[in-house]
């Protein structure tokens, strides 16, 4: 009965948001409440789960998304994004722009969580597409494929780093294996796949691109690049320094504090308000107006992202995730394939890659005591499964849809298919590595 309710909820979400055109926020709230009642959760606990689902999801994202939107708006309005596209043209040429986007996403995705990197890179994606009159999906998907792979496969992202600890894996080995698997996954699911869907129309409404400015009015190249990538630089450098000075308590605490995405974004806004605003002759009041417009642009996006956490929390609190995991214990699969399968099913049900990975780990760990399996590959197998078939209960699905202005159908054709390719290619890479190192 649990599985019937689970399938019914997912189907209901798809029908409500695609056929009935119900606002996704209302659809998640309605279906989540109905699921809790059908799963016989105590009535007094339903509201708690709903509030926790929204709060936990937005609590870790709202500051970063809002500050990131402000940064993106200022990068666009100041002409910094236009300057960056001119630099990319000089270094890579128009023919290789999608590969340049993949490389950028690969590098940015190592220190940054997916949602943070997404918001920070969106202005550059839009600027490149606008500048070179290229399809938005064709330009953006390769970079986002790189960000997603980094988030799902590699430490120091939440799920991989927790799995490394739980399975007693070696973080350096896992990272090395992960890079080997990540590169073909990014190439196949990024630039190559993007060529097959370049005609999908995108009608973005959340990021405004300003009119092309004369070159002499643009910020300098170094100012534009450093200002746009400052959160990446702050997080990457301070994370490295915090490890180098791990024996110096005060320095380590300072660097760890600045490395937090919220703090790095806040410091970035303070700096770029001058470097791309006041320093370029703008008044503080006009800069604040730009920031205010940025918040209005992403208000509905925030609601949708928060509501996607409702269903995840209902399933988690009601014990559905445990029921799904227990059912797969009976399957006689090789550990690496079983780990991927369990995680992929949980990902379908819960939406969250991190929760799916951590839930699957609790099931797979006892099985590893019976059959030897390389713990580093086990981390990567679960990581690959956690990216499988992102759909309407995943916040990243809605981020992609809303920012790119796509229909539900086209989001499935582009984003969901890309994530599925990444997951399957990742599993194949894990199995090949397992064969080679035995």
From TrEMBL:
<feature type="transmembrane region" description="Helical">
    <location>
        <begin position="336"/>
        <end position="365"/>
    </location>
</feature>
<feature type="transmembrane region" description="Helical">
    <location>
        <begin position="136"/>
        <end position="154"/>
    </location>
</feature>
<comment type="similarity">
    <text>Belongs to the GntP permease family.</text>
</comment>
<keyword id="KW-0813">Transport</keyword>
<feature type="transmembrane region" description="Helical">
    <location>
        <begin position="264"/>
        <end position="282"/>
    </location>
</feature>
<keyword id="KW-1133">Transmembrane helix</keyword>
<feature type="transmembrane region" description="Helical">
    <location>
        <begin position="222"/>
        <end position="244"/>
    </location>
</feature>
<dbReference type="Pfam" id="PF02447">
    <property type="entry name" value="GntP_permease"/>
</dbReference>
<protein>
    <submittedName>
        <fullName>Gluconate:H+ symporter</fullName>
    </submittedName>
</protein>
<feature type="transmembrane region" description="Helical">
    <location>
        <begin position="377"/>
        <end position="400"/>
    </location>
</feature>
<feature type="transmembrane region" description="Helical">
    <location>
        <begin position="96"/>
        <end position="129"/>
    </location>
</feature>
<feature type="transmembrane region" description="Helical">
    <location>
        <begin position="294"/>
        <end position="316"/>
    </location>
</feature>
<dbReference type="InterPro" id="IPR003474">
    <property type="entry name" value="Glcn_transporter"/>
</dbReference>
<feature type="transmembrane region" description="Helical">
    <location>
        <begin position="174"/>
        <end position="194"/>
    </location>
</feature>
<keyword id="KW-0472">Membrane</keyword>
<keyword id="KW-0812">Transmembrane</keyword>
<feature type="transmembrane region" description="Helical">
    <location>
        <begin position="26"/>
        <end position="43"/>
    </location>
</feature>
<keyword id="KW-1003">Cell membrane</keyword>
<feature type="transmembrane region" description="Helical">
    <location>
        <begin position="55"/>
        <end position="76"/>
    </location>
</feature>
<feature type="transmembrane region" description="Helical">
    <location>
        <begin position="420"/>
        <end position="437"/>
    </location>
</feature>
């Amino acid at each position: 009965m649990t599985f019937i309710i689970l399938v019914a909820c997912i189907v209901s979400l798809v029908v409500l948001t695609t056929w009935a055109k119900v606002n996704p926020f209302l659809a998640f709230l309605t279906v989540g409440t109905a699921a809790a009642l059908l799963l016989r959760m105590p009535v007094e606990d339903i509201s708690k789960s709903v509030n926790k689902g929204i709060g936990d999801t937005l609590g870790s994202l709202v500051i970063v998304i809002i500050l990131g939107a402000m940064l993106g708006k200022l990068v666009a309005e100041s002409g910094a994004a236009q300057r960056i596209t001119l630099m990319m043209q000089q270094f890579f040429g128009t023919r290789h722009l999608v590969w340049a986007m993949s490389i950028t996403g690969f590098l940015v995705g190592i220190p940054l969580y997916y949602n943070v990197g997404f918001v920070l890179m969106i202005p550059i994606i839009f600027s490149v597409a606008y500048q070179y009159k290229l399809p938005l999906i064709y330009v953006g998907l390769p970079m986002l494929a790189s960000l997603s792979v980094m988030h799902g496969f590699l430490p120091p992202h939440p799920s991989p780093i927790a799995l490394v600890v739980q399975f007693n894996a070696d973080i350096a080995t896992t990272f090395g294996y992960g890079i080997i698997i990540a590169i073909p996954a990014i190439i196949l699911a990024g630039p190559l796949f993007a060529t097959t869907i370049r005609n999908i129309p995108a009608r973005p409404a959340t990021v405004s691109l300003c009119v092309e400015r004369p070159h002499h009015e643009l910020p300098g190249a170094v100012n534009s690049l450093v200002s746009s990538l400052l959160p990446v630089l702050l997080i990457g450098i301070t994370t490295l320094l915090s490890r180098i000075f791990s024996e110096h308590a005060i320095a380590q605490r300072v660097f760890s504090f600045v490395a937090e995405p919220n703090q790095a974004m806040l410091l970035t806004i303070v700096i770029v308000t001058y470097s791309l605003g006041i320093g370029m002759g703008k008044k503080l009041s006009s800069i604040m107006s730009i920031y205010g417009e940025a918040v209005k642009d992403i208000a509905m996006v925030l609601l949708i992202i928060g509501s996607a956490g409702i269903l995840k929390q209902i399933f988690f609190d009601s014990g559905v995730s445990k029921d799904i995991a227990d059912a797969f214990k009976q399957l006689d699969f090789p550990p690496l394939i079983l780990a991927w399968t369990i995680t992929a099913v949980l990902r379908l049900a819960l939406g969250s890659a991190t929760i799916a990975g951590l839930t699957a780990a609790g099931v797979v760990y006892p099985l590893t005591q019976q059959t030897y399996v390389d713990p580093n590959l086990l981390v990567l197998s679960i990581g690959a499964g956690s990216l499988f078939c992102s759909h309407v209960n995943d916040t990243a699905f809605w981020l992609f849809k809303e920012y790119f202005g796509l229909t539900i159908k086209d989001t499935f054709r582009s984003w969901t298919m890309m994530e599925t390719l990444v997951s399957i290619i990742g599993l194949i890479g894990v199995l090949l590595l397992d064969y080679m190192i035995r």
